[in-house]
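Researcher: Last one for today. Full complex below.
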Amino acid sequence: MSEFLQDPSVLTKDKLKSALLAHNVALPNGEQRKGVYVDLYLKNLTAQNRRSAAPEPAFSSDEEPPAPVLSGRSRSGRKATRKTDRVRPEEIDVTELTNEGLKDQLLKYGVNAGPIVASTRKLYEKKLQKLLDQGPPETVVQLSEPAVTGNSQNGNTDSDQYSDKEEEATKAEPEPEPEPVPVVERPMRSRGKAPVTTRTRSGQHKIEKLSAVEQTPKTPDRDVLKELFPNETLNTPTGISATRRQPIKGAAGRSFSDSWRDDLRPRLTEIRHTSSSSSSSSYTETRSAIHRTNAVPLNALPLSSILKPAAPPAVQVKTRRRLPVWLQLLLLSAVAGFLFFVYQAMETNEMNPFGQSASSGALGSTSK
Amino acid sequence: MSTTSQKHRDFVAEPMGDKPVTALSGIGEVLGKKLEEQGFDKAFVVLGQFLLLRKDQELFAEWLKDTSGANARQAASCSQCLTEWCDAFL
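Model: Here's the assembly. Have a good evening.
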């Protein structure tokens, strides 16, 4: 296949190399700059272009079936075959335009180009080429506007690139190939740029497609939501429904009897009864009470000294503990007693420890 | 804080003066060398090119990619760096 490109720099380096190889052009060794390949291409192939101006339709029919001629050509060999196949009123060779001409052409597309000098010329040629590929200037003006106005935003340029691709795809064929493209780009578009309305050329069927596609995700969302919240009878505007939290015991004038009703305080009644009968400082009764209750929260005990009124029977729930509460209390009392004993033994030590250790020891033992 | 690199912040913080082209965000040693080969040996020359393209970030990024072989990220970074510098000092 020969591509009769006027400006081969629109092709990638790989494509250039493959095209050159296809025509048995000797490639230089190693990775060269693209310009090298472009030159070779121009020399070898563009020369052929002038020779063979006739067999264009033959080539096109080789590549694609003749039915979708216009669009087919633009699909596969899009950059390659399109330029020479289609007859266009405007000049097709951007490289042969003068600086002025190039600037004018760009202006037609609404691109306000800067000075076209040596360093910028190639860029503008490429840009014009891209614009020409998209079609006549009138429809492209609206396309390029979001690109031109949103220069400084990376997001905008992305959408422009996506739109380019999409243009090619939809122009091509009514195949499933363009289908995924608009579907993929739908989330890009619907992000809020509203370029859909500006696309006039391929816009109509695309708008329908978009609207059709946009409907479908909404309905599954609703089903999923309904599945997640089947008990959603209230349908508040925000969808938030509050559930009462557990009231804090002893707060805001709430007596503990109320809190008991809500909370799972096992066997508080028993503790309460036993502790009220005995003195609060003695742990033995509580210990025996707790002995019966297998699992009780520890903070029930400090409360036991406070609570006096009758309490409804509490819900008995066993909470897991490594050591039973009575055992913990036993240990605590043992340690406390030990410390008390030690303190008492050492208390009256006013005398000189070095001189009369015997008497202090005796005093200590007697004072106990 | 935005996702700018330290190099970016350093460049945008003051007039570029005579800084080398490698002071630009996104331009490292390799790219800097390639640019110098093309004649863009100082940051202000690259700025000149940027201004010639009417401060169009997209065009400038494309130019940078063609000239120095930068990838899209580097080119975008340099573009952004120059844009911000221009906003601050031009």
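The first helix of chain B runs from residue 6 to 12. Chain B has one domain: 6-89.
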